[in-house]
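note to self — DONT lose this again. spent like an hour looking for the file last time. sequence + predicted structure for the chain T wanted, 129 res
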Amino acid sequence: MSSQTSPDSRAAAALRFATELAAWIGAPWALAPHSIPLAIGSVVVLIGLPTVLQTPGDKERVVVPVPGVVTILLVLLQLTAAVVAAWFAWPTAVAVVVSVLAAACVVTEQPRWRWLLPRGRQTPPAPTS
């Protein structure tokens, strides 16, 4: 595998997607009783930021290039949102499952995060038109 390409395994990607899905559903579910605009905003942030901000080499097409540490922080935001929202919005058994899922995601993300960290010291290439 090239050093230019992220070492993202299928297992890590599947766990990350499942946790993102829990965040996308759980955050607005937990926030809606308090504020509909906040619930909508959570979806915009949780889906929009990772869609727009990407580390070159981690995704095929990059909209706005960012250092690897930003991608790691975005994943941590998703994981945190999933776990916190699950504990506020859903029964304890579901919250435990989401928490275990997030922990497994952190474990499987380690090779990708080690690959992403040095990318924080490099200047991202300028976008081309």
